[in-house]
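Appendix C: a fully annotated inverse folding record. The material below is reproduced so that readers can follow the format used throughout the book. The structure is listed first as tokens, followed by the designed sequence.
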């Protein structure tokens, strides 16, 4: 085999390896990537009422992130319960505000930046985002979308778009788990043997524990 043949063989092998590893198929979009980041941040939330994550992005680079929680060093809702006034938890700073304040604290400009939030922003956050120069709001879930917030975003020329992190991370993990266990319960009702059922339960538990 001469040098050219060897090179060709090497290129072919490299292509096969790339296909096997799934590089050609599984590249996630920027939207999925940033929204996945916000879902990860939401897992850091300390409020039991709702977990929200927000990621501020400029030129496809993450410049700040936040989740809803108490002030640094403060009492957490998960430890002492929420501090509820007029049906709102007043202990926490919202994820979007925390991300903006991180920029304020470290002197990072937010003008012309974009934000990825797990839930549609509340009216207060909407106004702060507009005032900070955010030009686009991408959200994964509708959340009491206030008509005045929508109006203000429109007035200010801020783009709002619903995007999901589908395929990037398992955002429906809990629903999948509930579904599998409801199927197992049905199998039991339909008379599946105890031994088989225990084996299936064991396998399901192994999957969902990871
Ligand atoms: Zn709370
Ligand atoms: Zn808010």
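Designed amino acids, in order:
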């Amino acid at each position: 085999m001469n040098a050219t043949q060897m090179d060709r063989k090497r290129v072919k092998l490299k292509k096969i390896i790339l296909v096997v590893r799934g590089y050609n198929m599984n590249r996630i979009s920027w939207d999925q990537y940033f929204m996945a980041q916000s879902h990860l941040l939401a897992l850091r939330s300390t409020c039991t009422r709702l977990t929200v994550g927000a990621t501020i992005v400029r030129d496809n680079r993450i410049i700040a992130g936040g989740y809803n929680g108490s002030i640094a060093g403060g009492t957490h809702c998960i430890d002492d319960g929420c501090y509820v006034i007029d049906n709102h938890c007043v202990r926490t700073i919202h994820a979007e505000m925390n991300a903006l304040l991180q920029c304020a604290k470290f002197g990072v400009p937010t003008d012309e930046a974009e934000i990825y939030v797990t839930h549609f922003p509340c009216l207060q956050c909407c106004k702060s985002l507009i005032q900070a120069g955010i030009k686009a709001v991408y959200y994964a879930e509708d959340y009491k979308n206030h008509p005045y917030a929508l109006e203000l975003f429109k007035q200010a020329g801020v783009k709002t778009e619903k995007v999901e992190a589908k395929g990037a991370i398992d955002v429906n993990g809990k629903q999948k788990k509930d579904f599998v266990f409801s199927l197992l319960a049905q199998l039991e009702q339909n008379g599946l043997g105890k031994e088989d059922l225990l084996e299936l339960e064991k396998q399901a538990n192994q999957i969902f524990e990871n």
